[in-house]
What we know:
The complex is a heterodimer of chains A (about 325) and B (about 300).
Chain A lengths: L1 H66 L2 H6 L15 H32 L2 H16 L2 H19 L8 H25 L3 H9 L4 H12 L1 H17 L2 H6 L17 H10 L7 H31 L4
Helix pairs in contact in A: 1-12, 3-6, 3-9, 4-6, 5-6, 6-9, 7-8, 9-12, 11-12
Chain B lengths: L1 H50 L5 H5 L12 H32 L4 H14 L3 H15 L6 H25 L3 H9 L4 H30 L2 H5 L33 H9 L4 H35 L3
Helix pairs in contact in B: 1-11, 3-6, 3-8, 3-10, 4-6, 5-6, 6-8, 7-8, 8-11, 10-11
Main location (chain B): membrane
Family (chain B): Belongs to the binding-protein-dependent transport system permease family. CysTW subfamily.
GO cellular component, one term (chain B): plasma membrane
Amino acid sequence: MSSIILAESSPAMPLDYVSDRLARRRTRHLRETIIELLLLAAALVSVATTLGIVFILVKESLVFFEHVSLWDFLTDTQWTPLFDDAHFGILPLVSGTLVSSGVALLVAIPLGTIIAIYLSEFAPFKVREIAKPFLELLGGVPTIIYGYFALLFVTPLLQLLIPELPGFNLLSAGLVMGIMIVPYVSSVAEDAMRAVPMSLREGSYAMGATRYQTAVKVVAPAAISGLAAAYILGISRAVGETMILAVAAGMQPNLTWNPLEPAETITAYIVQVALGDLPHGSVGYQTIFAAGLTLMLITLCFNVIGHLMRKKFREVY
Amino acid sequence: MTAISANLQEIRTIIARHKRWDLLFSLLGLAALMIGVLTFLTLFGQMVIEGAGRLSLDFFLNFPSRRPEQAGILSAWVGSTLVMVVTALVAVPVGVAAGVYLEEYAPKNLLTDIIEINVTNLAGVPSIVYGLLALGIFVYQFGFGQSILSAGLTLALLILPVVIVATREAIRAIPIHIREGAYACGATQWQTVRDHILPYSSAGILTGVIIGMARAIGETAPIITIGALTFIAFLPPLPFTGEPTAGLFDWLTSPFTVMPIQMFNWTSRPEEAFHENAAAAGFVLVLMTLTMNGMAIWLRYRLRKNIKW
């Protein structure tokens, strides 16, 4: 009797037990899969952002180019999209962008490079420990503050030197923008130079080279791809910078290559239009997307050049 | 004998000359650093001198006004705070999740490559382009309007690369034997991430989040683009107040202004008196971003010192 009961129930026990474990394993597996998918979805947000940017810029620009021919957009020398006599030549905005970026880079690239070489090759440990966070702070100051500084401090100062300088000009905006970009350039450049293996420096010192000779003739050329990356980063910062120029450069489209004049950049134009009440679907609404697309294409160009340069100059140790 | 010593003399002068270049370059480097430091100190000092007269409790509790001596930044700092809340609530979970995925889960395939390239590229996109994205997608496509919600989402997308990169770096610093230990005890991948990876990397992630938030709080251009107003003399509705009663989330759809926009508005007015207000608002803004950046730097410093695996 009892043996029969045992025979009936004993196989059932482990069976139940096993199936329970299997079920738990399955829910565990399912939960793991769901979590992985959720994490993947979060990672895909960045892809969605890029797609969104391209989609919205191209979509609105296409509507814009139905009204304005691409030829006019690229060759007309006036940018007066909101006037009765509307002209849609992007050149004045592009010239303003390039001149202000040029001024900024003339400040940021030499200063950034010197600081990077100094910090990585010359500075004592203590100086580096203090200087690096300080430079980071300099890069963390909101750009609107730099704009205020350019308009109300640097411009009056420059007017003492150049009396005919107008209150809004590309020069002071560009100078201040250059100071703003220095930390970005110097930190990437320094990282690149610190990545150069010690053996190269030791070889150079063993040959009797001084620090300066080692830094300029050995370390900097070895880190050239990183330096190029730092400069490209500086350029795309300068081209995309907005508030300093919106505040201090004046918001008049002006086809000029002279930094002493007021002018408007692509970014400042977008701010100017957005400040007015912007009816959805109006010409003003579409022009800022066309301007934004131009800006994206310019930064894309620089990024591609930077990528090619990095590939060409990549040093293998 | 004399020929050799003359030769030695010559070599010594050459070495001395080259060593002088060392010294010169050291001085040049210090001077370059000083330009940065002095600019910063001048900027800070100028704002303190210019704006100190306006800094009082009233300045924080008054709405903007046409009379400069009565104008304050109440709506600006409340707006900034609310926008930051939305930004943090979106950017932190999404950014950390994306970082965890890329570091712990992602297989080596095309999709992973695309995501990684994307994150790098997005870090270089000008902030005003995010503004255009938000204007097209959030404001008009999704119909969120020119609201705190739109602004918070925009800034969240903007700082997402910062959070992702910080998360990845923090996770990469955790040695593999921590994971192996967890797996050996039978933990699943998620349990390993939840109980080991995330707690150990939390300080590094926090550093990235603080830097991202400091950047977001000073960001002006993308918020102007979505149409934040420059003159706001009211606060977003508190939950469950007002007539008719506001819901729990009504503040999300309210018009708003933020600190940098308030400052931009005052800076671009021709009247001198408003420039004082701009300086005072700028001082508050710099103090906020500096505190946050300083906190992040300090955290990183402590982190580097303490962890020994």
